[in-house]
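Give me the fold.
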Amino acid sequence: MSQHLLPTVRHVIAIASGKGGVGKTTVTVNLALALQQQGARVAIFDADIYGPNVPLMLGIHQRKKSNAFVPVVRRAAAQPYIQPLERFGLKVMSVGLLLAEGQVINPPAAAVGQLVVQTLRDVVWGELDYLLIDLPPSAGQPQADLLQARVIEGVVIVTTPQDLSLLDAGRSLQMFREAGVPILGLVENMSYFICPNCQEKHEIFQRSSRWRPETLADTEIIGRVPLTAVISTGINQASPLMQADPTSPVAQAFLETAVAMAEKVARNKH
């Protein structure tokens, strides 16, 4: 589906959630690095206008304020011209790089999706195996315009074991399903806690099958990421776990998720 809009990108995968606070961006960044560790050429596009966290998580800072949201009219056949940044071998572009840190913007709701799709089109991505799009936690824009542009090949839904998170994840999943986008699976973040003393796994959130929506009934969980201080420390230091300690036992969760996602993508191609 991405060939028309992004002809040099093999697979465009959306990372979505129904609500904030589930660690979606953390999963996106570490999943990208896990794919890269397996030899893939990977980029991240941060499509969250109101809370773009990918740059900060990767230690990229924008100090200069701009008028980035002034509409720009470009010909449909115009060539890409925005050079992405590179960090840890990943190509990175974020709407947050068009603004200074702390700069508050209020673009018209109708312009949000258009801005994201246009920026995505204008980046010189080069040859990529995977482009992961980190979406904001909603079912509005820019999701609607991205779906209309038919750029997304598959979606991974990030959730936690909490009841409300599962309900919101079900709503997000249904939006993509109705648009005909393949659901690659769920990633359950903060799935369990690893005791630093005994190394045993402990369930923190209560699981209840009665809260699992029908929309999630047949959706495979392709990854379970533990709740651990190692991951949060990496976030605070702008050194993601998969970069700082890619062979650690905790990193194995992201590697397994990346393998499962890649297998789903390959299967959907046949």
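The chain has eight helices and ten strands.
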